[in-house]
Amino acid sequence: MRILVVDDDARILKTLRINLAARGYEVFLAESGPEALDVAARVKPELVVLDLGLPGVGGIRVIEGLRGWTEVPILVVSGRTDSADKVDALDAGADDYVTKPFAIDELLARIRALSRRSTAEPDLPVVRFGEVTVDLAAHTVSKAESGVVKLTPTEWHILEILVRNPERLITKHFLLTTVWGPTYEKEDGYLRLYLGQLRKKLEPEPSRPRFFLTEPGMGYRFAPDA
Where do you find CATH 1.10.10.10 in the chain? Predict the structure, then answer.
């Protein structure tokens, strides 16, 4: 099981990495919000252990960013004891909350409970829409009449995020920080350019997109049944 641990305290990261790895978990670490979103997009964790007090992008923003594209279980581990903080985290989409300092046995029990309750959707290796077939395992795209469609690495990265999350709104902020990094969070022109290129290659009528829809002011949505 892949677990992403997000905390700006190096001692906690080390403690959790050792304890989780000793129990057979595959552990990934992040020390900031932007790094957490980037690692999550790359490794597709099956559970996230998240601190709220992160530098730059706070824990609540990370939860909201994750919930823009995944239902992965999120366990908040935070030194904030105020009930309002717990409510904010749970309202944003967290699944459980543990207050620091915590006993490792309790944390492991919470992780096991979330694992059992997990409703994360399995990966679909092949996605089809219109005349297009996307093979996520092979990293290939083809069209019924013209065959293989060549995509750049950036086009593929955007396409993969969208097709793995059908009918879900994927925010502009998430796409920009995940594909290009946190310093590009306001570069909307990048998204317009690359979505335009994807539509030219994959939409029947690029000027009237059916599958890759724009949600004005918010982001994009993949609608496979359009």
Answer: 126-222
Which class would CATH give 2-117? alpha beta
Longest CA span, the chain: 60
Q: What are the residues facing 219 on neighbouring strands?
A: 171, 215
Contacts of 23 (CB under 8 A, 6+ apart): 108
Say if residue 142 is exposed, middle or buried (CB neighbours under 10 Å; 0-12, 13-18, 19+): middle
pLDDT in tens, the chain (226 residues): 999 999 999 999 999 999 999 999 999 999 999 999 999 989 999 999 999 988 878 899 999 889 888 889 999 998 876 777 777 888 888 888 888 888 899 899 989 988 876 644 555 689 999 999 999 888 899 998 889 999 999 999 999 999 988 887 788 888 888 888 878 778 888 899 999 999 999 999 999 999 999 988 788 989 987 5
Handedness of CA 110, 115, 116, 121 (dihedral sign): positive
Map residue 9 onto helix, strand or coil. coil
Please give the model's pTM, rounded to 2 decimal places.
0.57
Residue found under tokens 């996520």 = 136
What's the CATH code, domain 126-222? 1.10.10.10
